[in-house]
């Protein structure tokens, strides 16, 4: 009786193996059929594919030339449209893909930034507003910088397999790193654009700066042209809270103000006389120079986030009109 049971069990196991083999053969067969169908569908379309590639390259080149000309001739409208797209395009994908965590953070950031921007664009400008604006955007800049660094390190640790030391799955570690990297870069780009817009409005309202032409006020040696407040610490003295910084044009500013103007506000000229600011001299400390390089990286990413989806959509529209698939 036991022998009969063993034979039945052995026969059942063998039958399961045979079924698995048959299923594997069937799946391979289905894959080969799909592969053959795909080749049959695209057979003879080499010329069409080459035409699509040429359309993509031509569109990228023409779009880049147009964007450069637009930025040079009408920088204000270019920056406003780019900022709007930077703000709205990720929101569309967030709602579509149900990224609710990103949506909550986006709403909080937008609410506080809208309040700060509202304060920066009021006339007359409240004396405490410039400090409030630069503190908020400098805070977001530092948070985005730290978040991007942590995300980059998490991605690199995952690539080197260090996540296994903490018993973390590779896919979980990579998702964590890429998410942090995206948060840091996106909000870093967005806050710099808002900060630049607010810096222009505030400086123009204060009167020591104008985008074109001469300032409407004379700058005293004891007044900071960025915030319009008195400077109480001499350049040669060590300040308790912050120092006073003198540019090569001999105009003096609060250290935090001129750093926010150059790094956060993306300005590389004196707020009063528009003389070129030597960033290497300003940030002589090697630990501070990565902030300058990080800012340059964010400026480059603006194009990818704001305009790349538009260009790709334009290419797809051209292919659709021409009947290319």
Automatic annotation (TrEMBL):
Query: Which SMART domains does the UniProt entry name for this protein?
Result: RING
Q: Which domain of life is it from?
A: Eukaryota
Q: Where is it chiefly localized?
A: membrane
Residue intervals passing through the bilayer: 52-70, 77-93, 99-118, 139-161, 173-190, 300-322
Q: Which GO BP annotation is one of this protein's?
A: ERAD pathway
Please list the residue ranges annotated as the RING-type domain.
224-274
Q: In its UniProt entry, what is this protein called?
A: Ring finger protein 121
Question: What species does this protein belong to?
Answer: Macaca fascicularis (Crab-eating macaque)
The top of its lineage is:
Eukaryota, Metazoa, Chordata, Craniata, Vertebrata
